[in-house]
Design brief:
Length: 213
């Protein structure tokens, strides 16, 4: 009986390991950083706006699926400053903008992780212009983007603010994990009880037969 119980515990541990695998798989979707840093203030000028992740971004033809849209500044004069050309380099996707108007800018981004999972979000930064810098407008796309134009995908309304508070994946999956382990242990104990009862009944039958003999 002890051996059966040990087997049930081993099965429960194996189930727990399998349940935690998806948590590890989702780690590469996490944003490692942005440029400019979310919530920061930068000087007017030509700059790269980028988002970096925990693992490499999927390389696709024309970088399809990679989007960075820069909007601002807030107010009636808000406009789009990104040219639709998004470069993907390892863990980072970026685009170049030329900003002069002071104010708050919003970046909507979208990416495709190495396993094909789509990820999206948004962050904000501010621009100040103390030098009187004048913008030249949209930055001319690179030769690659000109040869292979990539349409800008409008950001979905469901984009969530970045940085954002994310619930610990382990805590979020804990109820399911506990239910699964509990179910396995319950079934294992039930099996042990059934086997034990069957053995006792067989022993009683054998004892009665022996007594009759």
């Amino acid at each position: 009986m002890k051996r059966v119980l040990n087997s049930a515990i081993a099965v429960a541990i194996a189930f727990a390991s399998l349940s935690l695998n998806p948590l590890a798989a989702s780690a590469h979707d996490e944003v490692a950083g942005t440029n400019p840093v979310a919530g920061s203030t930068v000087q007017a000028g030509v700059m790269d706006v980028s988002v970096s992740f925990g693992e490499d971004i999927m390389k696709t033809q024309d970088n399809a699926g990679a989007v960075i849209e820069v909007l601002g500044p807030d107010g009636s004069e808000s406009t789009t400053w990104s040219n639709g050309c998004v470069a993907v380099d390892g863990v980072k996707e970026s685009t170049t903008v030329d900003l002069a108007k002071p104010g708050l800018y919003t970046v909507n981004w979208r990416s495709v992780s190495s396993d094909g999972h789509e990820n999206e979000g948004t962050f904000e930064f501010s621009v100040e212009n103390k030098s009187g810098y004048e913008s030249g407008g949209l930055v001319e796309p690179s030769a690659d983007c000109v040869a292979k134009p990539m349409p800008v995908i409008a950001p979905a309304p469901s984009l969530t603010p970045f940085p954002k508070a994310t619930e610990d994946p382990f805590i979020a999956n804990l109820p399911y994990l506990g239910f699964g382990i509990g179910l396995i242990v319950l079934l294992s104990v039930a099996s042990v009880l059934v086997v034990d009862r069957r053995n006792k009944r067989n022993a009683e039958i054998a004892a009665k037969k022996k007594a009759k003999e």
